[in-house]
């Protein structure tokens, strides 16, 4: 399974909704605290790109020698329609400082020096050591997950429903792909009484790219059909 640090790095690198919270800072609109771009540097620092006149930039630049603490809160929502669409949350917190020269005209990049982090998702909840966060890599399927899950849900409903035979429960009426990573596919199953449950189908070995994923998915659907 992916480590808590890897899952947190994946969410930071993703397009999931993320809000930068600074104690005592208010904004006229919530989107003013949402960075236009998030990246992670080689030392594990999180870089956030904002308009130069955003409240977050003003707070970081006016502080000068005072320490500005901030928390980046990330919410992961399933890209397909399922009950309880929030798949998880992650947060990283630390010292916030300007990073001049890294953004274009009219913009400013802020550096979040990660001191603490944590994740609460489909795998479980737990803290993340900053050094582990810095060493971790995002899941290699991150850039493709949304498109693949939506394609499976919209174009491969019959194959998804074949997976119902592998869970060994009565009253299963449908299956929706919920999450995908290099280790396997997580599916949310519907029951005829209106309830749902999740099941995970691990790949024979972790996949590194789309070619490996196609092979693993073909094996999974062949097993379900057989």
Compute the CA-based radius of gyration. 20 Å
Q: Helix and strand string, N-terminal first? A: HEEEHEEEEHHHEEEH
The amount of helix comes to 25-40%
Number of helical regions: 6
Largest sheet composition: 7 strands, antiparallel
**Unreliable spans:** none
Shape: elongated
Total number of strands? 10
How much of the sequence is in beta strands?
35-45%
Span between termini: 27 Å
Indicate the mean pLDDT: 93
SS-derived structural category: alpha+beta
Question: Could you characterize what this model shows?
Answer:
There is one protein chain. This protein is of the alpha+beta class and 226 residues long. The protein contains six helices and ten strands, in the order H-E-E-E-H-E-E-E-E-H-H-H-E-E-E-H. The strands form two sheets. Strands 1, 2, 3, 4, 5, 6 and 7 form a seven-stranded antiparallel sheet that branches. It has a three-stranded antiparallel sheet with strand order 8-9-10. The longest helix is centred in the C-terminal third of the chain and has 16 residues, at 210-225. The protein is elongated.
């Amino acid at each position: 399974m992916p480590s808590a640090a890897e899952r947190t790095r994946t969410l930071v690198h993703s397009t999931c909704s993320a809000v930068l919270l600074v104690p005592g800072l208010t904004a006229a609109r919530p989107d003013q605290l949402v960075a236009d771009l998030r990246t992670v540097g080689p030392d594990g620092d999180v870089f956030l790109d904002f308009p130069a006149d955003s409240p977050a930039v003003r707070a970081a630049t006016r502080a000068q020698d005072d320490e500005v603490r901030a928390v980046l809160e990330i919410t992961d929502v399933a890209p397909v329609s399922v009950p309880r669409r929030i798949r998880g949350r992650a947060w990283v917190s630390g010292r916030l400082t300007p990073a001049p020269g890294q953004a274009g005209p009219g913009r400013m990049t802020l550096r979040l020096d990660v001191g603490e982090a944590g994740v609460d998702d489909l795998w479980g909840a737990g803290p993340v050591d900053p050094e582990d966060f810095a060493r971790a890599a995002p899941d290699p399927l991150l850039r493709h997950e949304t498109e693949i899950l939506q394609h499976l849900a919209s174009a491969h409903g019959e194959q998804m429903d074949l997976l119902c035979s592998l869970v060994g429960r009565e009253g299963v009426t449908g299956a929706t792909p919920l999450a995908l990573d290099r280790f396997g596919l997580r599916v949310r199953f519907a029951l005829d009484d209106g309830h749902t449950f999740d099941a995970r189908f691990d790949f024979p070995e972790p996949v590194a790219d789309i070619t490996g994923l196609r092979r693993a998915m073909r094996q999974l659907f062949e097993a379900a059909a057989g």
